[in-house]
Amino acid sequence: MTASIQSRIAPFIAADVGGTHVRISLVAADGDGGAPQVLAYSKFRCSDYASLGDILAEFIASLGRHPVSVAVIASAGYPLADGTVITNNLPWPLSPRELRERFGLDAVHLINDFEAVANAVNQLGSSEVLQLCGPAQAAPGPLLVLGPGTGLGAAVWIPTGRRGVVLATEAGQAALAVGTELEMQLLQHMLGQRSHVPIEHALSGPGLLNLYQALCALRGAAPVHARPGEITAAALGGGDPLAREALEVFCGLLGSTVGDMALLYGVHGVYLAGGILPQIGRFLAGSRFRERFLNKGSMREALERVSVKLVEHGQLGVIGAASWYLGSEFVEQ
Fold first, then answer.
1. pTM reported for the whole predicted model
2. CA of 182: how far to CAs of 10, 179, 246, 253, in Å?
3. What percent of the chain has pLDDT over 90?
4. Which of 163, 190, 235, 326 could form a disulfide with 244 if both were Cys (CB 3.0 to 4.6 A apart)?
5. Picking from 19-28, 51-60, 69-78, 80-89, which range would have the lowest pLDDT averaged per residue?
6. Where is pLDDT greater, at 205 or 8?
7. Is the separation of the CB atoms in 262 and 294 below 8 Å?
8. Domain extents for the chain?
9. For residue 206, what are the CA distances in angstroms to 35, 124, 219, 226, 275?
10. So what's the architecture of 3-119+315-326 in CATH?
11. What fold, for 121-312?
């Protein structure tokens, strides 16, 4: 048996649990700092299952002779010390203790989903990104990873030697800030329905629907679309002015919000990851995103030096969860 095989880390499960889909991989890696190697991968729709445990049961059954003892779960939401999760976007409760007991696992590790994504950015290739603005190569320094999916997630990668550390955030729950007269009217409409309008109430898949419905109310028009995907398709198809205007507002708000966060966290690069963005990449590149990103007064010159890229990698969450585990103190070789 070779040394490389002897140092191989036992296969483990890495999962990316979002509000709409769960992506799960069986992962292995060499013990000498090697990159995660995906041995099996499946994608599940949350609404088709009564619990995460049922999804894991189906995936584990498909592995056959690959026994596992460890699972690493990247989840939308805020993990608490007792193992529970504060989340607005998962369709069912998430309990690491229950999963560990049900499947006889030695350990179930839970991390924030965008903390996982941030752990994977250094493994991206040039073919997996679309440059939106700024230099092609970010200067050495902190990186922001952000994505509007079922909610809005964000994390900051901070270089500290070879691996770096990740600051998980709940930026999607911060108050939405607007910058145009139309956006102010839309926000006022939303405030008539709730006392706090978080960023993700506008910048997410459901957020696009919220913007569309508020825009219809302002225009005195009856909504004809009931799902975010329908709005996106109608906007890209060019036959629905209200759907297109809603998507334009979405892109403008996204640019402004990303610019705010770039300044707040002092980052040198931004990765927009996953969610609905890969579907609207060309639309986003031709929208007011860049204009609004740079519209920060005297800080425009600083933001012109920030590299902003759209990530096109469907397995980024599971690879990031695996990377987090492989760099942690929990790994046993």
1. 0.84
2. 55, 9, 11, 11
3. 61
4. 235
5. 80-89
6. 205
7. no
8. 3-119+315-326, 121-312
9. 35, 28, 20, 10, 11
10. 2-Layer Sandwich (3.30)
11. Hexokinase; domain 1 (3.40.367)
